[in-house]
Design a protein that fits this description.
Order of helices and strands of chain A: HHEEHHHHHHHHHHHHHHHHHH
Structural class of chain A: mainly alpha
Order of helices and strands of chain B: HHHHHHH
Distance between the termini of chain B: 23 Å
Distance between the termini of chain A: 19 Å
Structural class of chain B: mainly alpha
Strand content of chain B: under 5%
Oligomer: heterodimer
Number of domains of chain B: 1
Radius of gyration of chain B: 20 Å
Largest sheet of chain A: 2 strands, antiparallel
Helix content of chain A: over 70%
Shape of chain A: globular
Number of helices of chain B: 7
Number of helices of chain A: 20
Largest interface: A-B, 21 and 22 residues
Shape of chain B: elongated
Amino acid sequence: MLLAEQLPVIIVTVAMFCGFTILLAGYLNKKSAFWISLLANIVFFALSILTLRHVLAVGPIKYWQGGWRPPWGIEYVVDAMNAYLLVILFFIVILIEIYSKRNVEKEIEARKHPTFYALIQLMVAGLAGITVTGDLFNMFVWLEIASLTAYALIAVAGGRALRASYNYVIMGSIGAVFYIFGVGWIYAATGTLNMADMRILLPVVYDSRLVQMAFAFIVVGIMIKAYIFPLHFWQPDAYTYAPSSVSAMIASIHGKVMIYILIRLVYSVFTLDFIRYYIGLDLIICWVAAAGILAGSVFAIKQRNVKRMLAYSSVSQFGYILLGIGLSPLSPWGLVGVVAHILNHAVMKGCLFLAAGSFIHQEGKWDIRSFEGLSKRMPWASGAFAIAAISMIGIPPTAGFASKLFLILASLDAAQYPFVVILLLSGLLNLVYFWRVIDRMYFVRHEEPTEGGNEGTRRLPISMTAPMMVLAALCIILGIFWLTDIPMPLINQILSDLSTGGRL
Amino acid sequence: MTGGGAIPEKRMAGRDVIIETISRLILPFILLFGFYVMIGTEGTGGGFQGGTILAAGFILYITVFGAKRGREMIPESVNTFFESFGLYLYNGSGLLCIIFSMGAVQFLNYPGIWPVTDLVGVAGSRAWIIAFMVEVGIGLTVMAAFISQYFDLAWKDEEEEMVVRKE
C-alpha cells in the first residue's frame, strides 16, 4: 500500500484529533487555539495537494477502512473530483482562518475562543470526511458532524444568532432525516451502502417506486442542507447574524460540500440515465435552478443589510451549480460549469463576505445606505469587494464570467435556449444589486468628518486585508485560468471519473 | 467556579441521610458495572452503554449531593479532558496501526499494531485493542458528554445568568 493512499484518511482523522486538542489546549493557553488550528490546516492543505497530484498521476485512491473489503467494510474513495474539492476546502479555510484571528477577537468574547476554533476544526474534519468517503451511511455521519458544528458556530455570537441557528437546527435536522430515509430505502432495495457497489446493483431496480422515492427524498434533504431555492429560508438569517468569518466559511465551503453530495449521488450512485430516462428529472432540476437564480437575485435587490444581500446572492449562485447539474445529461459543458463554479463561487463569495465583514469590523456598518465614502477610508477592502462583485456580475476577465460562459455554452449545446436568457438576465440582476453597493462606496460624494490624529489606529490589520486581497486576485487569475488550456487535464479527469463511473 | 442562582442551595437544605448513604454505597458498584459492560467481554460493543452507566453513576452523585459539590468533584476541565482523551484512544488506536506498520496497513486495521499481534495473535489483537482502547475511549467520551450535558441543564455559570437577566 502506497503511503500517498493513506493521505485522505490521515487528513480526516488528524483533523478530528486537532479539534479536541484545541479544546484541551484552550484550558492551558487561550491563544494557542488559533495557532494549532492554522498550522494543522496548512499541513492538511499540503497533504491535499499531494493527494490531488497522486490522483491525477496514478488514479483514484480506494482505501479499505480497517482492511475490510468494500461491500462489507467502509471504503474511502478519492478521485479527481474529491481531491479537487479537498484542495479548495483547505485553501479557503486557511485564508478565512488567518482573517478570523483579529475579527474573532473583536466579535466573540475571549472565553469562547478555544471552543470556536475547535468547532471550526471539527467542521473542517466533517467536510473533509464527506468529501473523501465512498459510503453513503458514513457520509451521513460526516454530514451530521459538519452540520452540528455549523449550528454551533452560527449560534456562537449569541443574541439573534441563537434564533437563526435554531431555525437552521430544525431545518437541517429535517434535511438529515430526509437523507437518511432515502439511504435506508436504497439499502432496502439493494442491500448495500457502498457507492460503487450500489451503482452496479441499482440498474436492476431502477423501475422500483422505492428507489425513485429514495432518490427524491435524498435530493430534497440535500436541497435543504445546501439551501437551494424553494428550501433556502433558514439561510439568510443564519448568514446575517453569524460572525463574519463563520458566514464566509459556511457560504464558501460548507454549501459547496453539500452540493458535492448531490453531484456524487447524481453521477456516481444513480447515473445520468436514471435521472433522464426513468424519472425525467433533468429539465425539472433545470427549471428549479432557474427559479432559484432569478428569485435569489430579486430577493437580494431589496435587502439593506449587506450580509443578507450576499446570503440571497448565494441562493442565486447555487442555482447556477444546480443548473449545471441539470444540464449535464444533455451536454458535457454542464459539468464543466459545475466544476468551475464550485471553485469560482468559493473564491468570490469568500472574498465578498470577508470584505463585508471588515466593513462591520472596522466601522460597524452593515447597512448599504451608509457606505458612502467607504472607498476612501478602506481602499483595500472596498477594492476587494468591487473586484469580487464585478466577478459575480460576470464581466469578462473575471472568474464569474468563465462559469457563466460554460453554463451558457451548455444551454446552447443542449438546445435549451430559455436558460441562456435566464443566465443573461441573472447577470443583469447581479449588476443591479452589486452596483448599488459599488456606487455608494465609490461615486457618492461624502463629506469626511474631520478627525484628528488617530488614522493610524483605524487601519485594517494586515492579517485581515491579505486574505481578501489573495481572493480578489484569484477572482481575476481564475477568470483567465479557466479560459486557457491549463485546467484541461483536471477537467478531463473529473469528467471521466464522474461520468464513466471512475469509482468502479 | 462559584455557584450562581438559587438552584443548589435550596436542595442542600433538604438533605436526606438515607438517600445519601445508599447512593454512596451503590456508586462504586455502578461504576464497576459500567467498566464491566465496557470491557468485560473482550470484544466489540458495549462502549456506549458502559459509558452511559458510568455517567449515570456520576449523575446520581450530582443529584443527591447537589450540583455544587458535583461540580467540585467533576469540573468542566476534567470533563473536557475525558471527552478528548476518549477520542484520542479511539482515533489513536487507528493511527497507531498506520504508525506501527509504517503505512503498510489501513487505518483501524488493528493487527497492524505488531507488538500486540505478536503477543495474542491476529484475532486476539483485534479483540484486545477494541476492548481496551476503542471501547474505553467511546465509554469515556460518552460519560463525559453526558455529565457535561447534565451540568448544562442543572447549572448556569454566573456570566450566563447575567446574559439571561439582561435579555
